[in-house]
Design brief:
UDP-galactose 4-epimerase, domain 1; 11 helices; 13 strands
Length: about 300
């Protein structure tokens, strides 16, 4: 490969795994991350890190100096619950931050943007299971709305400025380096709490389903679609529905936890069932999720165990 790639959110969970992979393939990597949830120590030593918010004026300076060929835009306000409590902050980061990046990308000759959208959030309450990319989009949360808006702005910049893009609609991504604090994925929260001898609380009945996809599989999907000629919208998941209770049970076994099964109130803006159809990615790029839920959960728990020592 060997091109210059800018990764926003490159100090974060998915971003840091992607940066490692890009570096491994011989690319030059530049990272923009405000380190609000990302961690400096997760950024590959061979990447250049700019500690900066995507809404900042300084973004222009980074684009001018670095001249990346491709931008992978992962930085976001990704907390669904916070988006319902503070829709303005969510829109500020996810919509205005994205526009800020796209404006400078166009000015500085970026050829292609790869955008992290949300397969869970943009479809809303699903009518078809799993949801293909053609499923109607009816987000239930401000987060879902802002992600869908990001996709629409990308289409606008393509139509008016010729900026190419892929929108990758991720399922529920989990794995090592996911933050168990705040509104992380439920898997990181359960794993950390159970290892610490804590008591997790399952929101709602726990029968809500998600398409849990392991972070390495997501990174491979980004890599498969990163070429500047590739465009379009692609779901990234497993096509398999798993309940929150199922994950809880597996993690409980892996951690030998003696916690009780406690249920709390359901969360606002949360779908009951969510699963994406990945046929398009599979047929177009021969991409296939490699890591089963059982294996992925095992790797994730081992990661958190290692962090305890």
């Amino acid at each position: 490969m060997g091109m210059k790639v800018l990764v926003t959110g490159g100090a974060g969970f998915i971003g840091s795994h992607l940066v490692d992979r890009l570096v491994q393939e011989g690319n030059e990597v530049v990272v923009i991350d405000n380190l609000s949830t990302g961690k400096r120590k997760q950024v590959n030593k061979k990447a250049v890190l700019y500690k900066m918010d995507i809404r900042s004026k300084g973004v222009e300076r980074v684009f001018r100096k670095e001249r990346p060929l491709v931008v992978v835009h992962l930085a976001a306000q990704m907390n669904v619950r916070l988006s319902t409590e503070d829709p303005r902050f969510d829109a500020d980061v996810n919509i205005l931050g994205t526009i800020n990046l796209l404006e400078h990308a166009v000015k500085q000759g970026v050829r292609k943007v790869s955008f992290a959208s949300s397969g869970g959030a943009v479809y809303g309450e699903q009518e078809v299971f799993p949801a293909p990319e053609s499923h109607r989009t009816d987000p239930m949360s401000p987060y879902g709305i802002s992600k869908l808006a990001g996709e629409k702005y990308l289409a606008y910049y393509k139509n008016t400025m010729g900026l190419r893009h892929v929108a990758l609609r991720f399922g529920n991504v989990y794995g090592p380096r996911q933050e168990p604090e705040g509104e992380a994925g439920v898997i990181a929260i359960f794993a950390k709490l159970m290892l610490d001898g804590g008591q997790p609380i399952i929101n709602g009945t726990g029968k809500q389903t998600r398409d849990f996809v392991y972070v390495d599989d997501v990174v491979e999907a980004i890599m498969a679609t990163i070429g500047e000629d590739i465009q379009g919208t692609f779901n990234v998941g497993t096509g398999q529905e798993s309940t929150v209770n199922e994950c809880y049970g597996i993690i409980k076994e892996l951690t030998n936890s003696s916690c009780k099964d406690l249920f709390g109130a359901a969360k606002k803006g949360e779908q009951l069932r969510s699963v994406v159809d990945v046929t398009k990615l599979r047929e177009g790029f021969n991409w296939e999720p490699q890591v089963s839920l059982a294996e992925g959960l095992k790797l994730t728990v081992e990661f958190f165990q290692g962090k305890q020592k």
